[in-house]
Amino acid sequence: MHINWLGQTCVKLQTKNLKDEDVVILIDAYKPPSGDFPRSFTPQLAIFSIGDRAAKATLSQNPLVIDTLGECESRDAMVYSLAGPENSADLIFKIIAEGMTIVHLGRINRKLTSDTIGQIGSPDILFLPVGGAPYLDPEVAAQIVTTLEPRIVIPLGHHCDTDPKAGPVSDFIKNMGLKPEATEKKIIVKKKDLPQEETKLIILEKSY
């Protein structure tokens, strides 16, 4: 599975289905007022943690759009859309692909409920926003990681050219107390290579 961070809470997952065909899953695509960003996208699945953002991203080739509660299987990927924190319209997502469980916490800015934690379980890969308002406070984000115990954690929603007001990822790193992997523009994760005993912190550079 190839993973790119595209700024804000946008992530591109390039996975393989059972026919060994590439499947692109795009989460939280957006149109920034400034900064470097693609003009359009061609995913097979487009997922949005806030429904009205779907109209703000240019998508071509009619992808399957997921922006409501429920569950859906497409191209051998299973997507569960779960309710975010109480009194929030945000969604969070649990995706199963290539035998791995990926959780994306959308644009949440407060702690998860015990029910949501139970639905999420312990993911193989966790994406969560860490840059402070309007995202999670770095300390709260670190507490969520400790609770969920993912094998890999990748922070989103931190400072970049399309999100200049977000806080730096360094604040989250300090709260985590983990030495991050070398910063990369893209990573490739295979089920057999997942860490077995401790959480690995990976910092991605914004890329497409």
Overall description:
The chain is mostly beta strands and 208 residues long. The chain has one domain (2-204): Metallo-beta-lactamase, Chain A (4-Layer Sandwich), CATH 3.60.15.10. It contains 3 helices and 14 strands. A hairpin with a 7-residue loop joins β7 (77-83) and β8. It starts with a strand and ends with a strand. The mean pLDDT is 91.
Question: What is the count of β-strands?
Answer: 14
Task: Give the biggest sheet.
Answer: 8 strands, mixed
Strand order of the largest sheet: 6-7-8-9-10-11-14-12
Number of helices: 3
Mean pLDDT, all residues: 91
Unreliable residue stretches: none
Features:
globular; 6-stranded mixed β-sheet; 8-stranded mixed β-sheet; 208 residues; Metallo-beta-lactamase, Chain A; mainly beta
Question: What's the topology here?
Answer:
Layout: E1 2-5, E2 11-16, E3 22-27, E4 45-47, E5 64-66, E6 70-74, E7 77-83, E8 91-97, E9 100-104, H1 114-120, E10 125-129, H2 138-148, E11 152-156, H3 169-176, E12 181-184, E13 187-188, E14 200-204
Parallel strand pairs: 3-4, 4-5, 9-10, 10-11, 11-14, 12-14
Antiparallel strand pairs: 1-2, 1-13, 2-3, 6-7, 7-8, 8-9
Helix pairs in contact: 2-3
TL;DR?
By secondary structure, the protein is mainly β.
